[in-house]
Design brief:
heterodimer; A: about 525 residues; mainly alpha; about 75% helix; globular; B: about 350 residues; alpha+beta; six-stranded mixed β-sheet; five-stranded antiparallel β-sheet
């Protein structure tokens, strides 16, 4: 008899999720966790002794040292730039602060391989500087583009927007009345910043720094172009160069562990979010900069110059050169179409899996649904290179038909970026009262009709945002694409990377420009505007 | 009269927490029935169990001629023929008023007619093309009611329907609701924590506390002869005077009737039960005025009985207030009084006559 159920009673009736939610969600969780299991399997297949030997080898320790060194340099740099810019544009009378607010978010349009492309093709041998000055070009600057300093610039000046955007959001939410109270109790601007603003800002800085840390740990594009060997590059070289893949697998387990340590460190810091004490949001008092104004302006110019203006000009220079030489134009159309195509496919597939995962955990919270959501989120923290290797190990071992197919590449994207979509839909669903769905059921609508006519339309915003984010990150993705793509399949990202590593800068130019143009709109709409758009 | 909804021994639990314990009552056709109680008393859980949003652990629920919950049987919410009105309306924000009203009816001429009638009944037909956010709070509540009654359900369930409205609007919407329910000949179950609302609107009230139904009765029965001290204290103003605190005081107040009481008795006194006594009246006790609250048509005082740590509410009609800090003697008006004897589980009510 339809409409009737018998079974264990005593639970909230609608806490029984439909298998339509549960099955795809479990598939998603399996897709994330099974390949990781294969990484571990591959790493220890030579025995525990061999594994320990690999993990404690000189190569491994050196990679660990260099990776930590880079984190230790990039994170403080990005945090300092991010917080200083956020504070300048929200709390001071910086001339033109609204324009600066948008400009300061723009370095996000450069994925790390584009940033380092701009860097080496500006300063390095055969670069713009040498073209301009000939042999008289300052050689020292060329050195700056490579190695540790190159990686520091290419990552620090292009990841700070994560800290910046989160800090702005936090500064917007700080309670102005607290500062006024402090002022009325007689504390000056510096004490107010230290005692009132900073503590409210710290959680955002910490979250932003964690994002930057994860970015650095997983970055492959920048370090491979500026030739600074960290774990990702070491793993890649081991995978490409050695017949024995257990080396790459063993190194991957160390990188996974390192990632987990940083996440755990952040989680242990996390405190329950504070509530605003008063509801009225009023524009904050803006601090006059006085004679510090030129310093603040110079700092802003430096940040935007390195992070946006110079790389843009450099890439445009190479675009002009490419047009002169008529190179790479014919490929660009096909490459763009393939890039956009696979990114749309990834966005659609991710959305298809994200809806059940998000609805299950948002609507039917239980240990299992939360566990699934957490496993799915793990894919986001893991370096794309590791996810890709995991899938290769899995496919070559258990599903060889998938190896070197677009399907496996798609799976890599989905495993990696599913959390963006899940997160967006979950936060939409959390804001949505379950009463809409209950009301529909009461009015005689079946589960399916309720889902189709109520849930889906009301979650549209979250679904579109999530899909857009997956599209954006997929089209920029490099390391997983390099490993998983079928031979002959080329995206904008792989094309740029191949050309740059071979120093054919002009060939990288047009794909770079296309990539920036394609990703600029979703980036602005989905990442920058939600934070800055609420500005006064 | 036929019973439209019948609950027998319904128990609702969340994990190990028992939200509703053994609820039994029946709602007659076209009756407005209120579930009244403080927040967390289980009234909303019970309503949700009737709607089919919670699955009772024990007991049975019958709606119309159908057992929707019984041993091994549980009917999905969409098959129960109940209309639900949520606290905040829960109008589908992406649909117009007309699409909302039409959501629960059949997609044919008769269904459309029902939706139109319902909107007409709540007086919102002219606004049918508006979206929910384009309606005022009161209009949204009436629209939610229209949506719920359009499919002609056997019973309408209302979960704190006025809680999100401002006080001035509440009374008006309450009058509207009563009229609409009567005009639509609907049976309704209303959940509220506001005793004024329950007493005003309902034909019968079930008073709940800590998961239990303490008393079911008409508003007058609940107010005049509360079955338990908790009911008495919740409905209307009043205070229990406990024997333990001042037996002497009790004897002075009650006179010979006090001798009928023994042990742990509590005398329930409403503000209108007290009056100022003549000097030398043997049945009076001395008191001090502690606070004065002025309402215009009456004044509510809180007085402390001398020699006891006990405050009683005392109402005088008109605008003449007693002075704060002044002393006076008060006595009980003659009439019948409820006395609650015994502790929590085994509490019984007795009535005594004060002459």
């Amino acid at each position: 008899m339809s409409g009737m159920q018998s079974g264990p009673a005593g639970r909230s009736a609608l806490a029984h999720p439909s298998p339509v939610l549960v099955i795809p969600a479990l598939v998603a969780a399996a897709a994330v966790s099974i390949p990781l299991f294969y990484v571990c399997l591959r790493a220890i297949e030579g025995g525990a002794g061999r594994y320990m030997e690999l993990v404690t080898s000189e190569l491994s320790l050196q990679l660990l040292w260099r990776t930590l060194l880079l984190v230790a340099g990039v994170v403080p740099l990005a945090a300092f730039i991010g917080v200083s810019m956020a504070w300048l544009v929200t709390r001071t009378r910086l001339p033109g602060r609204r324009i600066w607010a948008v400009l300061a978010a723009l370095p996000l349009v450069f994925p790390s391989y584009l940033a380092s492309f701009a860097l080496v093709s500006m300063l390095g041998p055969g670069g713009v500087l040498q073209e301009l000055f000939g042999p008289a070009a300052p050689i020292r600057l060329g050195d700056l583009a490579y190695g540790y300093s190159g990686a520091l610039i290419a990552l620090g000046f292009f990841t700070y927007p994560y800290v910046y955007l989160m800090s702005i959001a936090a500064l917007r939410e700080t309670d102005q009345t607290l500062e006024e109270a402090a002022q009325s109790l007689g504390s000056g601007p510096w004490r107010r910043f230290r005692d009132i603003v900073l503590p409210q800002l710290l959680p955002a800085v910490r979250s932003g720094s964690l994002l930057v840390t994860l970015y650095v740990l997983s970055d492959f594009g920048a370090v491979s172009i500026v030739r600074y060997q960290t774990f990702t590059l070491g793993i890649y070289n081991a995978y490409r160069g050695l017949f024995d893949r257990s080396v790459a697998a063993a190194l991957s387990t160390v990188l996974i562990l390192l990632t987990l340590v940083f996440i755990a460190m952040d989680a242990s810091f996390r405190r329950p979010p504070r509530k605003r004490t008063s509801g009225a949001a009023r524009p904050p008092l803006l601090l006059p900069l006085g004679r510090w104004a030129p310093v603040a302006l110079a700092w802003s110019c430096l940040v935007i110059g390195v992070g946006f203006a110079i790389p843009t000009l450099t890439i445009l220079h190479w675009v002009a050169r490419a047009l002169e030489m008529n190179r790479a134009l014919d490929w660009s159309f096909q490459g763009t179409a393939e890039s956009v195509g696979i990114s749309i496919a990834a966005a659609l597939t991710a959305t298809l899996f994200a809806i059940p995962v998000a609805l299950w955990s948002a609507r039917h919270p239980s240990a299992i649904s939360r566990g699934v959501s957490r496993i799915v989120f793990a894919g986001y923290a893991l370096p794309g290179l590791v996810v890709a290797l995991a899938l290769v190990f899995f496919a070559t071992r258990s599903m060889i038909v998938l190896y070197q197919t677009l399907g496996l590449l798609l799976a890599g994207y989905v495993v990696r970026f599913l959390p963006e979509s899940v997160g967006a839909i979950e936060s939409s669903a959390a804001r949505l009262s379950p009463n809409y769905e209950l009301a529909a059921r009461s009015l005689g609508a079946s589960r399916f009709r309720t889902f189709r006519t109520i849930t889906l339309p009301l979650l549209r915003g979250g679904i579109l945002t999530g899909g857009g984010l997956v599209f954006l990150t997929t089209i920029k993705e490099l390391p997983a694409t390099l490993i998983l793509r079928p031979s002959g399949f080329e995206t904008l990202a792989t094309r740029i990377w191949t050309s740059v590593t071979e120093a054919f800068y002009a060939e990288a130019a047009i794909p770079s420009l296309v990539l920036i143009l394609v990703s600029a709109l979703p980036l602005y709409a989905l990442v920058i505007r939600p934070v800055l758009g609420s500005s006064r | 009269m036929n019973n439209v909804v019948e609950l027998t021994n319904v128990e609702v639990a969340y994990g190990s927490i028992l939200a509703v314990r053994g609820a039994t009552f029946a709602v007659a056709e076209r009756e407005i029935f209120a579930l009244l109680g403080p927040s967390g008393c289980g009234k909303t859980s019970l309503l949700r169990a009737i709607a089919g949003f919670e699955r009772p652990r024990r007991g049975s629920i019958r709606i119309g001629d159908t057992d929707v919950v019984s041993e091994g049987r549980w009917v999905q919410p969409e098959k129960r023929s109940v209309g639900m009105v949520f606290q905040e309306g829960a109008l589908f924000p992406h649909l117009t008023l007309w699409e909302n009203a039409r959501y629960g009816v059949k997609r044919e001429a008769r269904g459309e007619e029902q939706a139109r009638e319902a909107l007409n009944l709540v007086g919102l037909l002219p606004l049918k093309d508006r979206y929910p956010h384009e309606l005022s709070g009161g209009q949204q509540q009436r629209a939610a009611l229209a949506r719920a009654i359009a499919p002609r359900p056997k019973v309408v369930l209302l979960d704190e329907p006025f809680a999100s409205l401002d006080p001035a609007l509440r009374r008006r919407i309450r009058d509207d609701l009563r009229e609409i329910l009567h005009a639509a000949r609907m049976t309704a179950i209303l959940v509220t924590h506001d005793q004024e609302e329950a007493l005003d609107l309902a034909d019968r009230v079930a008073m709940m506390d800590r998961g239990r139904i303490l008393q079911v009765g008409t508003p007058a029965e609940i107010y005049d002869s509360p079955a338990r001290a908790e009911v008495a204290m919740f409905v209307g103003e009043g205070e229990c005077l406990s024997c333990r605190i001042g037996t002497e005081i009790l004897e002075s107040l009650l006179g010979p009737a006090a001798r009928e009481l023994e042990g742990d008795a509590k005398l329930f006194i409403r503000p209108e039960d007290l009056e100022v006594a003549e000097e030398g009246d043997p049945r009076s006790v001395p008191a001090v005025v502690e606070t004065v609250r002025f309402f215009g048509h009456d004044v509510l005082h809180s007085i402390r009985l001398e020699g006891a740590d006990c405050r009683l509410p005392f109402r005088t009609m008109g605008t003449a207030a007693l002075r704060r800090g002044s002393t006076l003697r008060i006595r009980l008006r003659s009439g019948r009084y409820g006395v609650f004897i015994g502790s929590d589980e085994s509490q019984v009510r007795r009535e005594i006559e004060v002459g």
